[in-house]
Structure formats: C-alpha cells, structure tokens
Amino acid sequence: MEGFETFDAAGTEGVTDVRTQEMFINMGPQHPSTHGVLRVLLKADGEVIAAARPYVGYIHRCAEKIGEVLPLEQFTPYTDRYDYLSAMNNNLGYCLAVEKLCGIEVPERAQYIRVIVAELNRIASHLVAFGTYGLDLGAFTPFCYAFRDREWILSLFERLCGARLTYNYVCIGGVRHDLPEGFAEGTRNFCDHMEKTWKEYDTLLTRNPIFLQRTAGIGVVSPGEARAWGFTGPCLRGSGVAYDLRRARPYLVYDKLDFEIPTGKGEAGVQGDCWDRYYVRMLEILESIKIVRQCLDVLPGGEVRAKVSKALKAPEKEVYLGVENPRGELGHYIVGDGKKAAYRMRVRGPSFANLTILGKLLEGAMIADAVAIIGSLDIVLGEVDR
Amino acid sequence: MAMEFPVIAKLLEGRFPQAVKGAVTDKGDPWIEVSPGGIVEVLAFLKEEGGLEFDLLLMVTGVDRPDGEGGGEIEVVYHLASTTQGGELVLKVRLPREKPLCPTVTGVHPGALWHERETYDMLGVEFTGHPDLRRILCPEDWVGHPLRKDYEYPEEYGGISAK
Amino acid sequence: MTALLGNAGGLFAPWAGGSWIGWIFFALVAGGIAFSIIGGLAYILVWAERRGAGRIQHRRGPNRVGPWGLLQSLADTLKLLSKEDLIPKAADSILFVLAPAVVMASALGCFTALPFSRDGVAADMPLGVYLIMAMLAFSVIGVVMAGWASNNKWSVLGAMREAAQMIAYEIPLGLLVLSAVVWYGSLNLGVMAEKQAGGWLNVGHWFVFRNPVFAIPGFIVFFVSILAMTKRLPFDLPEGESELVAGFMTEYSGMRWSFFFMEEYGAMFITSAVAVLIFLGGWNLPFVPGEWLTGSFLGQLVAAGVMFGKSLALVLVMIWIRWTWPRLRVDQVTALCYKYLTPLAFVCLLGTCLWKYAFGM
Asked: CA C318 to CA C315: how far, in whole Å?
C-alpha cells in the first residue's frame, strides 16, 4: 500500500501459537464520531489498534492564502469559519493581533463586551463538547439537553448581531455595534439557568459508572507529554498543567476579573485521562458564567469601536498573538509589508496541535476507545485544516 | 517571572556564539536568528535551562521572501512559550530559497511533527530527519507549494478543470 | 392455541393434526398470526420508543402523523416497503438475503412456546423455556451472517462483537433459567406461571416474593442479561451507532433492515415476557383468583392482557435505560458478565436449590 512504507506494526511479536490477521480499517472521513472530516487509518488486530495514522486536509479552505490577498478588515469573516463553534473567540484573536500590529487602542466598553461574548461562546462550545462526547459514547440524552441550552446562547447572539454561528461581530477597533436592549438581562437569566442545569449534567454523565468505565484511565497524557506534544487549552489543563493564556499573558480585561483555572487531578482514574479533560471543560463552564456576571456588573459606558482608518495598512512589522480559545491557544502570526493585505497570515489552530498526538495515543487502544479519545481531545476539523 | 528579551538574547549569544546570528528588535515582536545547524541544540537548551524553560513549541511556520539577496530566502519561524515561567520567544532560521533544508526539531519537541509537515507542504522546506515528511493539508499528489509567492494555480486536478 | 381455538368452537379442529394439507394450511395461518403479532408489537414499541425518547430528551417525539404520532410507524413501514432493494455488489448475496430471514425466524419461532394464558399458547410443550432460549440464541447466527455477508469491515466488527457478547450473556441467562426450572420443577412456562397463583392477594407466590433473597438479585441479573441479548444499550455495541455507523446492519436498507428492527423489538418483548413468566408471576393479577385466570375464556383473555401489560412495562424500562446511559465497551461487557453476573447467577442457583430443599416452594 503506497504511503505505508514507514507504517510499522506493533503488537504481534512474541505471539507464536495463534496466527491472527490484522486488518486495515478506515475510520473514514465520513464517520459519526470523528467530529468532522477526519480520516484515521487503523491497523487493527480485532478490536485492538496496532497502529493509527490520521489524515487531515479534507476541509482545507486556504485561509492563509486568502489572508495574503484580502485587506485586513475584510479577513474577519474567514476567521469565524476555522473553529465554527467558537467564532467570537476566533474573531477576537484575529482582531487583537491586528490591533497589536497596527497599534490600535480599543475602548474599555468594547473590551468588556468582547469578554462577555467570548465567554458566552466558550460556554456554547463546551456544551457542544459535552453533548457530542455523550453521543459518541452512546448516551443520547445529554446531547439534547446541551443543545437546548446552547440554543439560548445562540438566540442571544442572534439578537446581538443577527447570526447564530459565524458572527463577524468583533472587529478591528472594537465590536461592530453596542449591545441591544434586553441583552444584559437575557444573559443574566441564562447564567442563572445554566448554573442549575449544570448540576443536572453533572449527575447525568460525570459520575455515571458506565461513563467512568469508558473514560477514566483511557488516553492518558502525562503533563510532560502534553507540553512536549504542543497541547494547549483544556487538554493541557486536563493533564495537570495550569497554563491559561487569560492568566499567563492577559489580554482585554482578564487581569481585572476573578476566576479559577480548573486542572485535571486524576480524580476518576489517572491524571491526564479522557475524564480529566472532559471535567476540566465542565468546570470551565462554571468559571465562564462567573466571568460573564462580573463583566455585566461593571460594564462601563462609552464607545464600542475605535476610529480605524478606512485604508488600514499593515506596517512593516510582524506580530504573534495568542488567545485562549475553548480548544486551546489560537495564535495569529501576521507579517506586514506596508500594504493593505498581510504579507503572511499564519493561523495556529489549537486543534491542529492537539491532534498531532493522535497516532501515538491510539496505539494499543481499542476501537471503542478511539472514539472516546478523539472526543476528549475536542477537535474541530475546520480549525485543523483552516 | 519571565526573563526579558535582551537578557535571553545575550545569554544565547554567549552560550552558542556560532549558532546564534543576532537579534532583531525593531520589527514588531523581537526575534533571535539562529543558523540551521544550531537550531536543535538551541531549542534543547531553551527547554532545559532553569529560568527559561521554554517547554511549549507553539508552532513552526515559514515565510517566503523571494526578494532577498541570493535568489531569495525562506524563513522558518519557531514560536516558543513557557508554561512555568510565562515567557515567549521567537526564533528564526533563514534558508536559501533554492534548496531549503532544515533539521527537524521533533527530537526536542515531538509536537513539531505536523507543523513541519505543513511548512513542507505549503512552502517546500525539507526537514531532514523528520520521521514522516509528507503533505498534510494538500492531497498527496499535489504539485507545487501553495504559499510560495511564485506559486501557480493548477489548471486541472483529478480531471476537474480549474478554469 | 389449538386448545383455545378448540374451546372457541372447534372450527379448526378437523384441520389441525389431520391431513398434511391441513397441517400446511394451519402452519401458514399460525405463521401469519405470529408474524402479525410481531408486526403489531414492533409498530407499538417503535412508537413508544420514539415518544418515550422524545419525552426523556425534553422534546415531543412524533406528533404530526396521526393523533399522538400513532400513524408514524405506518408511514415508516410504507416508506421502507417502497425502497430500492440494494445488495452490495461484493456482498455474499445468499447469506446477505438469508440473514434477516434467519433472525426473523428465530423471533417468530419463540412465539410457538410463549404462553399468554394457560391455553393461549401455540404449542403447549413440556420443553417451553428450552425452546425459547434455543431460538433466541439462533438469532446470533443471523447477526454474524449479516455482518460477514455485507463485505464491510465495520459490519464484521459488529458481528464479532455480537458473537463475543453472546458467549458472555448466555451463561448467567442459562443459569437463572436453570434456577427457575429447579424452583418450579418444570420447563413449561405455562406451568411456571400457574404455580405462581395463590398466596397472599394472588401475589405472594410470585418467585420474587416467595424467595426474595435469591429471586430479586436473580431478576436483576436476568434483566441485565436480556438487555445484552437484545442488543439494547448499554450493550448495543454490535449496532454501536456512533462507532460503527450501524454495525452489522450498515449495508441493509428497506424491508430487510426493518426485519432486523422487528426482530429487535420482538426479542425485547419475548424476553420480557419470559422474565415476567419466571419471576413476576406470569399472568397473575393481585386480587384476582388464579383459578379464574386459567379457567374460563374471559379469564384467559384477561390473563393475556395482563401478560401483555407486564411485558410492555418491562420493555418500557428497557427504553428508559436506553436513553439514559452510555454504552459499554466489548471487553467491559464480557468482564461484567463473567466476573459479576455469572458468579451472582451461580449464587442464585445454589440459593434457590437450598431454599427449595429447606423451605419448599
């Protein structure tokens, strides 16, 4: 099979009495549990995976090449579409990078609004992660509950900017327009509701013995491995490393806000297993609710958008800025050369880095575990491929 | 607390006089230029050394500069971060555009596996010693390196015309 | 069944057990009746599952087609009947076509020995429960055939998982049936139900109440085993929707697929009925004298209704469990069955023997 020369098997040395045949199974681009168009070629001996090789690129839409052609302010809608589940955070990451490059200051009200929408989007994204993880493992009901609550957030966003999934709301200089009437109250109601239903989700899935059997001790990534393989976000924190960009390199007004950084402690099994990563996301929902409430309480008045020149040119400099996306560190590396479009627009998708370890992590796991592991890494292929 | 950039630059220049070519601080984020031969040991040093501990390789990327001297250059850019000290650092390696060869850093940071594949795919940089250097985002039989400035779009692929 | 029909007027008496033409005719009629029972059951149970699932998931379930969505299953059946009959080119067509038939045959065959009342049984044979266990085990062959014949690696995985699961759950299931046989002294399910009549309020002689120390855990182990047998969550890995697309059923579409589905609901009902007959008093209702339920025609009709009701209640519990819990991995299923259920089943068997020896029934 071409392309497989370096794909060596593991696992059947030493077994001399039983001759089994390994089969190549395609966990194909179309699969209910790969969270997008991910292809993983598995070499399986029955249920046990001897080797795995992921293939990505099925949803590569050339965002970086487009970034070299379009003027800076026209590129924002493309940022929505890498990780479509956390579009506000993507917009934010890009706009902060451009503002750092061009030296634009954002008014304070806009900064607070940006934090509110980013955290609401974080809750929505983690709800999807929670729901689809249950779905992958066979529990259909948490999926329906999570999406019911996510609907609330999406209708808040629809009220805010007219779109449910890809917003293009955070723009260079601030946000596009101010919060509509009733938004703050709607958000507060949502926060109260979410805190109550969080307890329901916790009861439904977190301590369920079957869920624990499927996720505790599976897919263990030690803290050292997590750092070596480039993990960021809940995956890194699930392995016990307390590194969150909102604390390590604060942006916007995060240094004025009070919130915790949950990390995995191996409560259910081993530190850095699937359960830890899942539970870190659950706890982050609660922390985001705290942040949203604090921002709503202290929301200052004023402008929501700085004056940005219509002919914005990227100066001859280069910057890198990372923000804490629900999936990890989204980084934008923008190199300018004095023109309206960037000279080089490189996007660091956190799911791309988190997925690198998959080939190694799946070795020795069972096929059912493969589903649990991929679900716990919480990848979105739009971000892997851009 | 994180070390300041000038301190790190001086430390590296003192420790690796051949490998480290210099630091640039006037073009936005400051960076340290390293020679291709020395990048692996510099990264290993930065990872292990107490007070620096740059254990997270955020990404490996490339920038095509066809207008440099000698037929142009491709810059391979390494972004590092430290989970313990909270610092950030950028390293650059400049390679000749005709034959961009760079040693792989997967020995020090296994997470560079896919980043280097993407840089190869998009810009044609060959990482010597990489365990699995194949295209990652483009199909395996794609011709050309898309993010190069002189890239020509194909006229047809797999029987489908692109015109 | 013949006795019941004979009681109802002797209409069919000359046909049954006479000439071979009569035998064939009778077999066709009986087969038709059994098929319509399964069809009707599948109809109602699919509706109950979809409405129940909707309710549990905070939504309504089908409510457009017919009042309360009752005609939804009809619409689905019509749609499935009108689908193109697809057989993959590289599939083993003989096995591919035979598999749903085998699986359906096993479900239908169980109805021969399943009593709904004392005389409401197709063939009142002394080996009743043994036949049912054998027919249910037979369905696994159909599943493995389907998985293999589909020429699809995911289907093969589903089939292998079913084979592994079957070996795991059959042991505790068989042991518990054995303990029931020891308790009642008969393999005939009708006799088992009859023996549970009488006692306090016509409830006291039920197996679970007569011998609660061993019968209640026994019932729970039995229920878990039949969840595994019918491939319901948390044991639905042969079908594993989110892993294997549809497991062994992936390549099936249209009416062939609906055979698998009907068999699943049929088996759910049959195994629940067996559980009811063995553990939960069969057709005995509290406050109603057992002799009336096994004597008069009206009593037997009520008995049949009670049987249906109790079995449906257990099926509803199965539906409830399906939409609440995640699924187990195949090695966890085998570990559960071998390490926990089988020892428990042994304890139940031993305990039942000792109890019967010490206290009688």
From this structure: 5
